[in-house]
Fold:
Amino acid sequence: MAKPDDRSNNVERLKTAVQNTKENIEKAEFSAEFAGPNEAQKIKEKNKRRKHAIEGMKEEIQDEAAARKNGYQ
Structure:
């Protein structure tokens, strides 16, 4: 039998994921200062993807918060 969809903590999980991703961006930017040109470029590209992911997570937080407000769980 399939496990029921428990969305009760999605907002909190997503907020934690956003915070962790922001911290990873900061750490990567710091390490990029000491990296060679090729590695620094890879770090910039990865951080660009991370920032894009954060935007998606923020949208999902809004969706989940609205669903919670409307009584969906």
